[in-house]
Amino acid sequence: MSLLQCANLTDYLKTLGPSQLENLYVHPATALAVFRELPLLGQHYVLRLLHVEQSVPKAVVSSWVSRVDQYRKIEVQAMEALTNLRVWTSATNQAGMESLTLDDTFKQNLKTALMGGGSPWTTSRYLDLDPNRRDAAYLDQYSQERWDTVLHYMVGSSQQEGISADAVRILLSSGLMVVTPGTTEPTITRSGFQFLLMDTPSQVWFFILQYLDSVKSRNLNLTECLNFLFQLSFSELGKDYSTSGLSHGLLVFLQHLREFGLVYQRKRSAGRFYPTRLALNIASGENKSLLERHREGYIVVETNYRIYAYSNSNLQVALIGLFAEVLYRFPNLAVAVVTRDSIRQALRGGIKASQIVRFLQMHAHPRQQEQSQKKKRDEKLSNERAKDVIPGTVVDQIYLWEKERDRFTFEEGVLYNQFLSQGDYETVKNYADSQGVLNWSNDQNRTIIVSRAGHDDVRKFWRRHSRGGN
Q1: Sorting pLDDT into bands at 50, 70 and 90, what band is 268?
Q2: Are residues 29 and 161 located together in one domain of the fold?
Q3: Are residues 137 and 108 in the same domain?
Q4: Which of 152, 275, 433, 434 has the fewest CB atoms within 10 Å, counting from its CB?
Q5: Which portions of the chain have biased composition (kind: Basic and acidic residues) (predicted)?
Q6: What region does 104 belong to: left with phi over 0, alpha with psi -120 to 50, or beta?
Q7: Could you give the 3-state DSSP secondary structure of residue 87?
Q8: Average pLDDT of 290-318?
Q9: Which residue among 210, 241, 275 closes a domain?
């Protein structure tokens, strides 16, 4: 089964229509967010064209990159990204040459974002001092509690009170949970298991993408919601922002973000809100571990396959229980062991070995992670297997247990038997083999199995052969 797909910002914006992209680029925050997600070479192209007021031949733009073959793929990817996002447009100039021009709306608003100017997106400067001001520590705790409510609901723990109806609807519509016939309570799906082992920023971004797919049914404006998200991503943690000037649709959207933990608002009637760390850089991959550093507790994995989780979080223990056998539970500590059976159970649930390793690495002791990153920088090692954070014997064994399931492949087929003669059997068998659809044969029992895709072709051949023989 394939991994749960979570589109990044660029891939998501490619699905929008030209008019929607044009409306998004009206806002400097959106233009800057898109620029930030472009490939490095794409950013280079944009900056060189930003103050050029005429079209530039494509051949000239291509000359900015070395003609060495290894850079050709990078150039193609950058140009495709700029074209797909309509950051620039292509046209034929008077000399018959293909020329490129930055989208005027994108260009003007990116200039505003980079060099200042424009009007503020909220009237926060007119806010009085908040007597109930919240600092970063409080906002971190609040956002994690709100988000953990969603995760607790998915794992079916006792701490699932407070989840909103909107969150449940998104879990169901996204396929992370499903209501099976004869039951009333949703149960987690294979995709849901994969979702649980993703890092928190990726979970939040996936969740928001599912929400955005439903904005039309909520009578909300997709472009307006996206712009607001991008504006939040550039906000300052611990700073309050005014709700004055927000449309009715954005006020509704704000309440949904509040339910998911992306913003804090003391009460609905309050004229201010605080963006949380979940909302900062929501669509950016640069700070994937930013929120994880603010979690309490950590995990230690020993070479004897034992896991020591130094945490009070019932959710973290429940997640460990997805792929390990929990042995003991103490205050501030849970002890578990990774076994072949526990890993196979996780694999049957749709969890991948790479996700298990990533989860253990992500929750390792902060000092161990820092040492790991330093070692990788010094030695230019790959971050793929993370053996220096988790014992190599454990990492290798988890992958080996996963590969055990790949020793057999399953394919649908159609059985042919009861042939009247050895000649008929050989004729059909040879034809199926020549067509590449023969999966198995037994000469002694005159039995063959052909693939489901090749069944119709073999059957038609057999009918023609039978009529010819009669």
Answers
A1: confident
A2: no
A3: no
A4: 434
A5: 372-383
A6: alpha
A7: coil
A8: 80
A9: 275
If asked whether residues 173 and 66 sit together in one domain, one would say: no
- Mean pLDDT across 332-346: 94
Q: pLDDT for 32-43, tens place per residue? A: 989 998 999 999
Q: Output the furthest CA–CA distance in the chain (Å, rounded).
A: 97
Task: Name the more confident of 81 and 118.
Answer: 81
Residue 346: name the closest of 199, 202, 193 by CA: 193
Residue at a domain's end among 83, 115, 147: 115
Residue 108 and residue 190 in one domain: no
Q: Record the tokens describing residue 469, joined without a space.
A: 């023989």
Q: Where are the alpha helices (DSSP H) in 261-412?
A: 314-320, 340-348, 353-362, 366-379, 392-404
- 156 assigned to some structural domain: yes
Q: Is there a contact between 370 and 293 (Cβ–Cβ < 8 Å)?
A: no
Instruction: Let me know whether 266 and 372 are in one domain.
Output: no
CA distance linking residue 341 with residue 347, whole number of Å: 10
* pLDDT, tens digit (0-9, with 9 covering 90-100), for 170-225: 999 999 998 878 777 888 888 888 888 888 888 899 999 999 998 888 899 999 99
Residue 1 in any domain: the answer is: no
The count of domains in the chain is: 4
- Report if residue 48 sits inside a domain: yes
Report d(CA 27, CA 43) in Å as an integer.
18
pLDDT single digits (tens) 117-175: 766 666 555 677 888 888 999 999 999 889 988 988 888 765 556 788 889 999 999 99
Q: What is the mean pLDDT of residues 267-283?
A: 85
Give the amino acid at 440: W
Give me the DSSP letters along 95-153.
TS-EEEEE-HHHHHHHHHHHH--S--SS-GGGPPPPTT---HHHHHHHHHHHHHHHHHH
- Rounded Cα distance between 87 and 192, Å, is 35
Task: Give the sheet arrangement for strand 325-330, strand by strand.
Answer: 298-301, 306-310, 333-337, 325-330
Which residue range forms the structural domain that includes residue 87?
9-115
Rounded Cα distance between 188 and 203, Å, is 15
For the chain, give the percent of residues with pLDDT over 70.
89
| C-alpha–C-alpha distance, residues 318 and 10, integer Å | 33
Q: Which residues contact 112 (CB under 8 A, 6 or more apart)?
A: 28, 31, 118
Q: Are 422 and 310 within one domain?
A: no
| Mean local confidence (pLDDT), 375-387 | 54
Same domain, 182 and 314: no
